[in-house]
Amino acid sequence: MIKRVILGIIACLTISSSTFADEGMWLPTLIKERIKEMRKMGFKLKAEDIYSSEKASLKDAVVQFGGGCTGEFVSEQGLLLTNHHCGYGSIQKLSSVEHDYLTYGYWAQSMAEELPVPGLTVSLLVSMEDVTERLAAGEKREDIIASATKGEGYRASIESIYYGNQHILYVYQTFRDVRLVGAPPSSIGKFGGDTDNWIWPRHTGDFSIFRVYADSNNQPADYSKENVPYRPKRHFKISTDGIKEGDFTMIYGFPGNTQEYVISDAVEYVANVSNPMKIALRTQRLETISAAQAKDPAVRIAYAAKHAGIANGWKKWQGESLGLERLGTVEKKKQYEAAFAEWAADKPQYASLLDSMRAAYATTTEGYFVRELFNETIGAIEAYSYARAAQSAIDRNAGDYFTLPKDYNIDIDRTIARQMIAEFMKRMPTKYIPEALRSGIKGSGSIDAYVDSLFNGTKILRQGPTALESLAGDPMLEFAKIFAPIVSHNSRYLYRNLSNVPSIEKWYRTYMQALREWDGNRAFYPDANFTLRVAYGTICGYENADGEYHTPLTTLDGIIAKDNPQIYDYDIPQELRDIYKNKEYGRWAIEKDGRTTVPVCFLASNHTSGGNSGSPVINGRGELVGINFDRTWRSTMSDIEFDPTICRNISVDIRYVLFVVDCIGGAEYLLKEVGVK
């Protein structure tokens, strides 16, 4: 055991020591520039196998799933894998107390039993094109996009990279008939819940299975019983050979947001202002929702996805701030900037650049903070959002009725409204607090009384359709209106990060040009922006603390060790206990440290971010070995600074996915469909 751990550490250090081996989110169209490095690490395929505009390639097996995840095709009949947490909202939408698919899972035993998910879409990348020169020559964005979107379900966007130094046209085809095929019980798919989120060792079977349907011509179509399974140009072959420390891995997906090149002012804002504020506010909301969920199973189901969404960022930001502090990122940035300034001093085009950037942050940061604070307080009140939706329908003359969503709980929202309005009043700079809000609170005598007057007096929070014409003068609509100036103010700051606000971002275009001229040994990959990227690395553990090495594979033994019927997130299905007791692992058994068990999750050194949830993890032969779903808590600062010694992504081992499908779901027909015999 000790010898194997030592060899693992040596393997990781040897591979990671090669320059830029693990860091980076690379454009697939430019992967030829990285292929030599990838081959040294164990990749066997060609660049054209990863991305090609001439023939089917691996990019044709990867999709944007829903609004913010990745998925991958694993069969010729449109069978799709993604994370359980990516499918969570869809599973919740199909669940009820009588049919609680969140708690007990769902397994279609034939295509006829697959459940349509209203509103769920997947999008395939059709092509990428650098249009920087076309735009510089005077072509209009809208004309380029219009010419690229001729066809059913096509959409396109032009995204800037390197802060506007390049512009890439992305063309997608979106499919609108997506059906749930299988989902494990939450005690497998969300095993460990928020407690284990972002943590290693991890034992979460974070996967769900869907199928994409199309019309008879294999084109996107609205749901219809006449639709047939989509036939993808390419799908991933599954490998059940397993993984070992040092093996090559590649991630293919849609990372959402990184800011690797920002200056110290931006990092200070994240670590010292933004994250602490958001963490504190979300803590209150989570405590309120958790207390209500513990009392009522219906509320637990209704608010499951909402709770998970709030908690994910809440915990991530905590780890990010700790990581930035541990690495001393702010101070390192300042030292880097000082060296840059020394180089730039005799170059007129760059000499005052940092001063201009810092001045831009000084005048822009407050406005961005107002936007974030508003979103985390008033914007977090569901009734406020419904009031805005109703007002929008009235203004657009869009329908006659407003209907409250079925998963809404007025008692939870009332409590959150009291908390968030109080926090808004305490934290918001005085000049941004609407006078009408001050007067309303003063006239009611207290914030709680003011909130009660809104919730008791409004009609939009009643169950069933509410006639829009009856909402004239409704107190909740009037409440929403008083924030119109802040909403208008917010519209000037609706960007991914503070550094993407135009008054700041305009300086980064020149800064990126300067850095690439000055720092010639640095590998400059574009920041993530939810477009298709390739990241590569190795199966690799890490030293979590002095004398504490985290090995890269967990097993069923760890699940059993955590099993606790008294805790919802750790109460595994009885079938899994029985399988473990009887050691009925079948073809999924492995030998680890002298015992027979089943693999569950693994670590790798791939650079990932939000949006990579559900991304395929492939081996050197291009075969699927896992599904990415998380990072370690100490890795979450990698959106700003990537530390190759400790940054690790977490994936569910494809063998555990198949084990659950086979032994828990009893859906052996799916194994045959994906070519596993």
Give a structural overview:
The structure is a single chain. The protein is of the alpha+beta class. The strands form five sheets. Strands 1, 2, 3, 4, 5, 6, 7, 8, 9, 10 and 11 form an eleven-stranded antiparallel sheet that branches. Strands 15-12-22-23-24-21-18 form a seven-stranded antiparallel sheet. A two-stranded antiparallel ribbon has the order 13-14. A hairpin with a 4-residue loop joins β7 (154-161) and β8. The longest helix is centred in the middle third of the chain and has 32 residues, at 264-295.
Quick recap of the structure?
By secondary structure, the chain is of the alpha+beta class.
Question: What is the correct CATH architecture of the largest domain?
Answer: Beta Barrel
Question: How does the overall form come out from the CA principal axes?
Answer: globular
Tally of helical runs: 25
What is the number of E strands? 24
What's the CATH first level of the largest domain?
Mainly Beta
Distance between the termini: 32 Å
Structure classification: alpha+beta
Strand count, sense and barrel status of the largest sheet are: 11 strands, antiparallel
Number of domains: 2
**Mean pLDDT level:** 94
CATH topology annotation of the largest domain: Thrombin, subunit H
The percent of residues in helical segments reads: 40-55%
Beta-strand percentage range: 15-25%
Low-confidence stretches: 1-7, 15-20
> Compute the gyration radius: what is it?
26 Å
